[in-house]
Design goal:
This protein is α+β, with helices and mostly antiparallel strands. It has a single domain, classed as Arc Repressor Mutant, subunit A (Orthogonal Bundle). Helix content is 46%, strand content 15%. It is built from 6 helices and 2 strands. Strands 1-2 form a two-stranded antiparallel sheet. A hairpin with a 5-residue loop joins strand 1 and strand 2. The longest helix has 15 residues. It is globular. It starts with 19 loop residues before the first helix and ends with a helix.
Length: 123
């Protein structure tokens, strides 16, 4: 009598793993750190701008992570902006220290390399 709950192991060579990334030429999208750092290399921004540019709703956390993980420093300036109701709301504008721009370029390159984007740029 056969046990219905028991499964037989697959024959050797019968198990095939589908590699979607090679077949579809798909690559990982840029991480939030890579995207935000690319913007910081070109401009300063506050959380409202980051949200509209690339959907970052927690810019303060992203900036903190960039400082903690990569030692990047940011200038902070308080500013008031009118919201939809006309009320002034406090925001913090972040700007990458000019002295850290070389390091930031290196970090962006490392992050691109990790997700395989540099291979495509070189080829």
């Amino acid at each position: 009598m056969k046990d219905k709950n028991r499964t037989t192991p697959p024959k050797q060579g019968a198990l095939k793993v589908k590699d979607d990334s090679a077949a579809n030429n798909t690559k990982k999208p840029p991480s939030k750190q890579e995207t935000s750092l690319s913007y910081f290399l070109a401009r300063s921004m506050n959380s409202m701008e980051a949200n509209s540019l690339y959907g970052d709703t927690c810019l303060h956390t992203t900036v903190s992570d960039l400082k903690r993980c990569y030692g990047l420093r940011f200038e902070r300036a308080r500013e008031k902006i009118k919201n939809r109701m006309g009320v002034l709301v406090n925001f913090t504008r972040y700007q990458l220290f000019t002295e850290d721009s070389t390091r930031a370029h290196i970090v962006v390159r490392i992050l691109k390399e990790r997700r395989g984007a540099l291979r495509e740029e070189i080829a």
